[in-house]
Amino acid sequence: MNLIRFRVIIDIEEDVFRDILIDKSSPLEDLHRGILAAFDFGEGEMASFFKSDEDWGRGREVPLMDMGMDDSGTPFPSMRNVVVGDMVELANDRMVYVYDFLRMWCFYVEVVALEEGEKPDYPLLAHEFGKAPDQFSKEVDLMDGLDEPAEDDDAPYRTGDPELDAYLEDGEDDHGDGPSFTSLDDLDEAAY
To answer: Which of 67, 137, 162, 165 has the most CB atoms around its CB within 10 Å?
Structure first.
């Protein structure tokens, strides 16, 4: 069983998926390019594959970008040096693929069959269902995941990070007994 047939489902309201056939010894970078081609997305954005469980939880991450080497000289995992068979082995094994970290296109990638055959020259688009969305149709929302600012101007801004929110709620009166500065100019004058 040297070929893997993946069903790649894009996370949108409509049912849209592609079946892609690839050799299990191919680097994940080939699958990355195959998914983009199958959905008519252009390259050039950051991406990662995540090993996944049956509930689509994200596990081990393999990024597109090469992150260098560890202290022992071993390269960190990247789509260039991790092969498809290292992430999935059996039917129903899963991965999550995220493309374009500003638009956060999410794809659910599941092994639907293990097959024998000759290695395709490129990941082969074996089946397609539904019309893929335009790559740029999803709005970039830099505030996604952050709480809305409080209506009261005196209330601290919520970031969504519990530690940072707790720090912001503490105010300025719990930060030591040193001098209080209201601007950088005050800081410069106190230094002289």
So the answer is: 165
